[in-house]
Amino acid sequence: MARAFRLYLVATILFVIGIFLVGQQWKGDAGITLGYPLSSCSVHLNGAANGGVAFAGTLVVAISAILAVIAFCIGIVGLFRVTKAEKVREKPKSPTDTNTTT
């Protein structure tokens, strides 16, 4: 489980870095319109990100998504994996064992 946690942590850090890199190159605007009935409400995001930094940010976000999926799979497998402590079982005591206290 610790390995999955570390991968999630790395994926989250990479995601934040990727969004920051794309955000640095973002050129555009955003708008919100409120109204009644609620079906007339809208959010508009218009913009683009250009250059190598934006491309690198997109790659970093994609890598973070892949790492998050891998960490999820490792976490699920870890739930059903038998640990070494569970493999070691106590030997059954023989009926002639004299060291037992009752």
What does this structure look like?
With 102 residues, the protein is of the alpha+beta class. It has one domain. The chain contains three helices and two strands; from the N terminus they run H-E-E-H-H. Helix 1 packs antiparallel against helix 2 (52-80).
Keywords:
single chain; 102 residues; alpha+beta; two-stranded antiparallel sheet; 3 helices; elongated
Helix content: 40-55%
Low-confidence stretches: none
Beginning-to-end CA distance, first to last residue: 40 Å
**Mean pLDDT rating:** 84
Summed up, the helix count is 3
List the helices and strands in order.
HEEHH
Total domain units: 1
Which of globular, elongated, flat, extended, rod-shaped describes the shape?
elongated
Strand proportion = 15-25%
Radius of gyration over all CA atoms, rounded: 27 Å
Topology record:
Layout: H1 2-24, E1 26-33, E2 42-49, H2 52-80, H3 84-87
Helix pairs in contact: 1-2
Brief write-up:
This protein is 55% helix and 16% strand.
